[in-house]
Amino acid sequence: MVVPYHAEPATDFTKEENKKAFREALEQAKNDFGVERPIIVGGEHIETEDKITSYNPSDKEQVIGHVSKATVKHIDQAMEAAEEAFESWSEWDPKERAELFIRVAAIIRRRKHEFSALMVHEAGKPWNEADGDTNEGIDFIEYYARSMMELADGKPTLDREGEHNRYFYQPMGPGVTITPWNFPFAIMTGTTVAPVIAGNTVLLKPARDTPLIAYKLMEVLEEAGLPKGVVNFVPGDASVIGDYMVDHHKTHFITFTGSKATGLRINERAAVVQEGQDFLKRVITEMGGKDTIIVDKDADLDLAADAIVNSAFGFSGQKCSAGSRAVIHKDVYDEVLKKSIELTEELTVGNPVDETYMGPVISKKQFDTISEYIEIGKEEGVLKIGGEVDDSKGYFIQPTIFADLDPKARIMQEEIFGPVVAFAKAEDFDEMLKIANNTEYGLTGAVITNTREHWHIACRKFNVGNLYLNRGCTSAVVGYHPFGGFKMSGTDQKTGSPDYLLNFLEQKVVSEMF
């Protein structure tokens, strides 16, 4: 009997034994610093001269490791390997595929701290954020494996006299997964294993800033006995292989998480039918957000401030779900702002190895972009706290609050992807909703209120894919909060949902006459 799905529990770092174990994992991870990892095509480990070098964003001169770069030639080889592997992998009983991945989850669970510790070094994730990232990756595997078991026999249809009908699902073929650096294990794992559990094969292109944690998944897949060619590991420069992978005439689907600009480019290119292509490509994209927390005049103000601060500054605001806008009723605006500043003053920033609340931002590129937005914010609003930046050692930016913003200001409209939150004042709940909906994004949002009628209005009119009452707007849990957004936040195919695997399956009907 298959055990029902439940979310992987977080590690309790208030317990000294857990702290000790994690510190040991952080030290152990250093033994691999400078390691060289290959690309993997059809099970073959291939070293190339050209490498991606992964650096520690907390200590920008510290090399975590090197990963070989795939070329266009390797993409062709990987697509051939994926196509060949698909012939047999797609014929596996769906329940057997699912059981193999439950084994994958078990292996990762036993090595949990090893994965999380690497993310502290490679992605600059604080302990709890890294632990949550690993847990979410495990959750995706477990949840999708059980989802496939439920889909294995198809769905019932009606029969007429002398006729028997069957409705079932079949996999599509090889596809491409392009993953982000901000959830380098969870999103990378979820978007890779979902199509594979469904019976497809994948070319995995991990984020340039975090390729080593993706390689760890490949290690586990090999250990668990996944057939060669089912997942092909092809890190490389987007400018060299990105368009080529999307355009390839054998690419049946593309999953992408990242910027709006790249997501739109992928959608546009995937719509073109290439020579030799006899199917339409499916595109699953998640492209970011400009997420708002609304605070009503009767709200619990301490809860509101806590929700704003943690949603804005968790993992330095480097989440597509981060609460980067606080829209507050005029009657409680000053008090919520004051409480939020006080909470922000308590936050620690530094190398997350030292158990800080916030670590660095991921790269020089992100550091420069966020720094520019802080300067824009100084022109558009009132800087209340933070604003200091320092890249002398690593890419550190202090948690920053701007007040008194016009709803149309750039820092109220554009995705910053850093520890910056903008406060705006509103006359009433209708105006708060109007402001909340005034961006091109529609990913997450939160409403802090004790007026039930306002919550019902928000459920209908707050135009986001994930809406929360009396809590922050981050930390969706697989299976509990299926995740995906409206408008320019993406295609809203809801990761961690009962429907997600359908993105990678074709529905077939067989009618038999007697």
Structure report:
This protein is an alpha/beta fold. It contains 15 helices and 23 strands. It has helices at residues 16-29, 72-89, 94-110, 112-123, 127-151, 186-197, 211-224, 238-247, 260-270, 301-313, 333-345, 364-380, 410-413, 429-436, 452-461; strands at residues 35-37, 39-41, 44-46, 51-56, 59-68, 163-171, 174-178, 201-205, 231-233, 253-257, 282-286, 291-295, 323-329, 382-385, 389-390, 396-397, 400-403, 420-426, 441-442, 444-448, 466-469, 486-487, 505-513. A seven-stranded mixed sheet has the order 14-17-18-13-12-20-21, with helices on both faces. The protein has a five-stranded parallel sheet with strand order 9-8-7-10-11, with helices on both faces. It has a three-stranded mixed sheet with strand order 1-5-4. α1 (16-29) packs across α4, α5 runs parallel beside α6 (186-197) and α10 (301-313) packs across α11 (333-345).
